[in-house]
Amino acid sequence: MPHLGDDRYDAELRAETARFAAAVRDADPAQPVPTCPAWTLVQLTAHVGFGHRWAAVIVERRATGPVPASCDSTGSPAKTSSTWPATRSPTRWSFGPATPRSLA
Length: 104
Description:
2 strands, two-stranded antiparallel ribbon, mainly alpha
């Protein structure tokens, strides 16, 4: 499988996040999600947001090992900014058999 560059991953993540935001912006938060049985749109949106904040903590900390889901002292994901381009380093922890994953 060919390796995509960091800029491509960044662009795709931003584009898909914008698509998701547009899709839920005016929708009923209590609407059931057909592909996620027993979930409402508000639950799915919270889940996606949690995942994004957790991933941002991994990037910002330059983590080379797993980061627990409770990422800050309050037990919830830390509030983060989009600092991916400014914090690139040779490796980051990620899911999969080859961790930490080389970003080079």
